[in-house]
Design goal:
alpha+beta; 4-stranded antiparallel beta sheet; globular; 5-stranded antiparallel beta sheet
């Protein structure tokens, strides 16, 4: 059996301790079918020295949940892995730039449709007042450009006090109420080939679709043609040798699909909602090997 490494969270970070082992187990089960053993190792054990990863023919960073809370060390680790020319998939340079949501501005510059976004070096009452005035939005979404799992993500009304505003670089967008009715749809690609899709909706009264906030997940057997077209447009705009990608999108009020994020680092691949139970991912990993 071929042994490959799978990077996992910092053992000192308990945030996702009840969730990520299940993701690891589903990944390991899918790979075992094609004769691959997934060996877990914390990414924080390899920040400044890549020697512990050098003997693996492939390294998957798919479960580095929580890296956004330690972004400086994450970038240092990516630089170490790049310098060592480790066989990471996705590649270490991709792991670095995809960790800051400012990449969305570059994709928008390449014609990818996404919600109107204001990029800010900080969030103040004046910043928010100007954003409400310029967008005409009834509500705004505010989140750090380095974030994950809706961390420090806020939905605000005009004049609402902000007690936990993101520090540093942030993005501000008009709130799309379609997240409550149509949900967010994620399309999964392995080796550039579409695998499966999942729709995620928040519980009534919330806007966050993550599991930890009660998000409801449903397989989408036949994703809309417009959603598939947007996902392909995003992948073409990125133009990197990606082993896996999760493209998250939401329709606007007119039914036009808008990119929310291109998850290329540690997305939950929703293998439990994949009719093939990860066979496409396993085939892509085997082909990469």
């Amino acid at each position: 059996m071929t042994r490959i490494a799978v990077l996992t969270p910092d053992p000192a970070d308990p945030s996702y301790a009840s969730q990520w082992p299940g993701v690891r187990d589903r990944l390991a089960a899918a790979l075992a079918v094609v004769g691959i053993e997934a060996v877990p190792t914390p990414w924080t054990a390899h920040i400044d020295d890549a020697a512990g990863l050098a003997d693996y023919p492939l390294i998957l960073p798919m479960i580095v949940w929580g890296y956004h809370r330690d972004h400086r060390r994450w970038l240092r680790a990516c630089a170490t892995w790049t310098a060592a020319d480790l066989p990471l998939a996705n590649p270490a340079p991709v792991l670095a730039w995809n960790s800051d949501k400012s990449y969305l501005a570059r994709l928008a510059g390449r014609g990818v449709p996404m919600p109107e976004t204001i990029w800010s070096d900080g969030v103040t009452a004046d910043t928010l007042a100007a954003a409400f005035a310029s967008t005409g939005a009834e509500h705004l979404i505010v989140k750090p450009t380095v974030s994950g799992g809706a961390w420090k993500t806020l939905r605000l009304s005009p004049g609402e006090a902000v007690d936990d505003a993101p520090e540093g670089s942030a993005m501000i967008q008009p709130y799309l109420s379609t997240i409550e009715t149509a949900g967010e749809t994620s399309l999964l690609f392995f080796g550039g080939v579409f695998s499966h899709a999942v729709n995620k909706r928040p519980v009534p009264g919330d806007f966050r679709i993550q599991v930890q906030y009660g998000g409801l997940y449903t397989p989408v057997p036949d994703p809309p043609a417009g959603a598939l077209a947007l996902a392909q447009q995003v992948l073409a705009a990125i133009d990197e040798p990606l082993l896996y990608a999760r493209i998250d999108m939401v329709p606007d009020a007119d039914g036009n699909w808008l990119l929310m994020e291109a998850e290329l680092i540690e997305p939950d691949l929703y293998l439990d909602n994949d009719p093939a139970r990860g066979a496409g991912l396993a085939a892509a990993v085997r082909a990469r090997l």
